[in-house]
Amino acid sequence: MCKTEYAVCGSPHLLEGSLSAFLPSLNLAPRLSVPNPWIRSYSFEGKEEWEVNPLYCNTVREIYPYSNSNRLLNIVDMAIFDFLIGNMDRHHYEMFTKFGDDGFLLHLDNARGFGRHSHDEISILAPLSQCCVIKRTTLLRLQLLAEPEYRLSEVMRESLLQDPLAPVLTEPHLLALDRRLQLILEAVGKCIDTFGEATVVANDTAQPQSPAVHRAKLDT
Prior knowledge:
This protein is mainly α.
């Protein structure tokens, strides 16, 4: 495949590609497709509100389900994932309808990821930088992956060695992960400096009580 409208011609004999994984059919696992509040403008005629209004998140917070659920925190998680891989094309996300509004987000359609290893598209982090919220578990994991003994590039390199298509990612892409991770932590740091850690870092580490514990309390 070598068409003028797609920049996928070999250079000279290597060709970049992407892998796809397919979910069960909609009959077996019904899904809901939801527009991303931070959808990118796909024309030169105008900009989306978030691209011109730094206070855009205040509007999103007033809209259900972002107003009273973990959905906004999940959107921030998704933005962090997209920034790490350089995916600017997150125009929607999907959810399994069985789990309702509190279900997890399906990160489908990542084909635009790992494109330009030399470019860090900061605008992908708009949900984080504009809302200034992040899950504590997410922040702790990012901080761990920034430590020398658990560096993200090293973890990814070792993990991908088990893949039949190893190495999968080139070295520049692996190093880009470390660079982008530092940019994420810097963005979180700016939010904490501005609003305080208690406001920025959402505590999602509390474990719900088991039914047995709950019954024991009722019995007493």
